[in-house]
User: What shape does this take?
Amino acid sequence: MKSTDGIDQLQRVVVALALVLLAGCAAPSKPLALDHPANPDAPEAVTAPMQPMLMQAASETEAGPPTSPAVYTCPMHPDVVSDKPGECPKCGMSLMRKGAKQ
Ligand SMILES: [Zn+2]
Assistant: This one.
């Protein structure tokens, strides 16, 4: 019977060591540094300001050129209409862009 008691005691020690190892792996043995990326208390000044800029750039990209065709006309000759910027064939003035067709 003494031998079995010895085995039980050894098993308990092994289990205790295993629990200690598991606990040691699950929880950090020492607190993380303030500047550690994994530390939730670390200052977010590095990544926070980037998000509004990215959102603004994305919105500007989405705005982009209007899908409706632009109309260019001569301020002196309204009958001169072009779908792209250029010069008036009659007077040579730069065509002015009108609002989108309505
Ligand atoms: Zn003109």
DSSP finds two helices and three strands in the chain. The beta strands are 71-73, 81-82, 96-98. The pocket of zinc ion is lined by residues 74, 76-77, 80, 88, 90-91, 93 (CB under 6 Å).
